[in-house]
Specification:
By secondary structure, the protein is α+β, with helices and mostly antiparallel strands. The protein has 3 helices and 4 strands. The protein is elongated and about 60 Å long.
């Protein structure tokens, strides 16, 4: 199961890609990047610190997969249906 997330990227003067980390710091390692759940959150932060929001997908963790599975099949309350 894959999950969609947003990161903030920018190009340096030497045309290297940097990813935004917490604390207004930048890293050349993509694994250090802060992930945002929505484009709107990533865009607001990108407006503040510079850079562009970029979408990526990765494998969901066990907790994220369980939350997505629960949302996909909501419990039906039979008493409310009567």
């Amino acid at each position: 199961m894959f999950i969609k997330r947003w990161t903030i990227q920018r190009l340096t003067d030497r045309f290297e890609t940097e990813w935004y980390m917490t604390g207004d710091q930048w890293s050349t390692d993509e694994e250090d990047a802060e992930e945002f759940c929505t484009f709107a959150k990533a865009q607001r932060r990108a407006d503040r610190v510079g850079g562009e929001p970029c979408q990526h997908q990765r494998m969901a963790t066990a907790v994220e997969a369980a939350v997505m599975a629960k949302r996909a099949f909501p419990a039906i309350n039979m008493q409310a249906a009567e």
